[in-house]
Amino acid sequence: MKPSDKALVPFVSVDHMMQLIHHVGLEEMIVGISEEIENDFKRWESFDKTPRVPAHSPHGVIELMPTSDGEAYGFKYVNGHPKNTSEGLQTVTAFGLLADVYTGYPTLLTEMTILTALRTAATSALVGKYLAPKGATTMAMIGNGAQSEFQCLAFKAICGIDTVRLYDTDPAATAKCAANLAGKGLTVITCTSGEEVIQGAQIITTCTADKKNATILTDNMIGAGVHINAIGGDCPGKTELHRDILLRSDIFVEYPEQTRIEGEIQALDADHPVTELWQVMTGAAKGRKDAQQITLFDSVGFAIEDFSALRFVKKAIKGTAYFEPLDMLADPDDPRDLFGMVQRSK
Ligand code: NAD
To answer: 234 catalytic, yes or no?
Structure first.
């Protein structure tokens, strides 16, 4: 077989992902991924589901996140190392793969560090569309690190907010986030405390990184009617909210089996009632019921969101130059003659 006949796997590098985002448009891409996620959540029962597989260490966690809808299979490799930023490294990096269930052959390999930020933002804002109070205009963004700008722009594009209030324990992170959001169609207000940042916000996003049970929000900070989008607590022993807030909130989760291990609700009894988001999206369960209700998205990030994002990218790169073909499939002339193929290359 000539090398040109080989089955090659499209690979999207970090550089190509950035070019793809500029080609599609950042907000358009977040909206597109959110539509894929919504469609996939609405056919939740057609997916294989399992809590992600973690390898914990004192330094952080490395996780594998697999799922399949019977036709395509996907997984993401992702890490979470809060100490990394002090060493000039990122807290979260990732890559992912799609494969054809019929042959088992991979059909896409891609960077997912940027894609994770997009899919996390897409999921948050999609959930916000169902749960945030009607007419919400202002979001408090607590934790102004790598995910933060994507979150703010997703809530603008999908939920129609026009103002973000920023707070981070590191003022340099807030300054970075504010500078990146300048000219992006949002009124940006920088704040110097948790108490200040939540003033007038109908949506509160917590996206901090610390491998401990932190208290980013205390009970007295949460008034009636707000929607809390809690993203940062996503590991055993790594949470952001005071337990009393959970007891006053209606809690919405991706996949309870995983969230009970990793989410804010690890602080609650194992049978504490939660609502599954896919049921809200199909109409089987209620989302926001009234203006007084406190809704909490206890986000940990689930494999189906990555699967949806991978499928979005697979379609989006078609007919573009934003990928390179990778030689990662052996192609013996006789499928059983792998040895002969090695000889052939001499
Ligand atoms: P990052 O390290 O780039 O940013 C985290 C920011 O939080 C930093 O700027 C830090 O100064 C700030 N911070 C830490 N403690 C704080 C506190 N007490 N109050 C205010 N700010 C504080 O990390 P990132 O990539 O933005 O990720 C943030 C968190 O979100 C991580 O814990 C990560 O694991 C999690 N995450 C969750 C999902 C999901 O799907 N739920 C997806 C991606 C990342």
So the answer is: yes
